[in-house]
Design brief:
It holds the Pfam family MMR_HSR1. There is one protein chain. The protein is built from four helices and six strands; from the N terminus they run αββββαβαβα. With about 150 residues, the chain is α+β, with helices and mostly antiparallel strands. It has a single domain, classed as Rossmann fold. The protein has a two-stranded antiparallel sheet. Strands 2-3 form a two-stranded antiparallel ribbon. β5, α3 and β6 form a beta-alpha-beta unit.
């Protein structure tokens, strides 16, 4: 999960070694619906990433609440099929100085939906390091850990 353009789909394609999920180099985002990566094995477990549309998409006809609802509906269906969700990866573009208000709000909503114990299975990953001076990127990364 994360804002549009943070590199969610690129991350999934890189980790899985696949090019199955379409990536856009244009202003418009490609991911409009929840989609699945090809399965791969990690530490003797079969893993599938769930790719989601991005938040804060100015060109989309859907609000962040609509996207959260779409993801929640999908996860409800996963639960009904007795499949296990191991965690959440939230991607943040390090070239953005701050976490947007909507990004913080989305994480708060996720926390309310899933409960505090689920936070131990949440990872915030930063992307776009090549677009920022290394020292500045490191400073921003440290500030994320302090919540500021």
């Amino acid at each position: 999960m994360g804002p549009t353009g943070a590199g969610k789909t690129t991350f999934i394609n890189t980790v899985t070694g696949s090019t199955k999920l379409q990536v856009s180099d244009e202003l418009e985002s490609c991911t409009q619906e929840v989609q699945l990566s090809d399965p791969f094995v990690f530490q003797d477990r079969n893993v599938v990433f769930i790719d989601t549309p991005g938040f804060d998409d100015a060109d989309a006809d859907r609000s962040d609440a609509d996207i959260l609802r779409m993801v929640s509906d999908y996860l409800t269906e996963v639960y009904r099929r007795k499949q296990t969700l191991a965690g959440l990866v939230y991607l943040k573009d390090i070239s953005q100085v701050r976490m947007s208000g909507s990004a913080c709000n989305n994480l708060r909503i996720f926390r309310k939906l899933c409960g505090d114990p689920s936070l131990r299975n949440v990872a915030i990953l930063t992307t776009m390091w090549s677009t920022v001076n290394g020292e500045e990127a490191e400073k921003r990364h440290r500030n994320l850990g302090r919540g500021g």
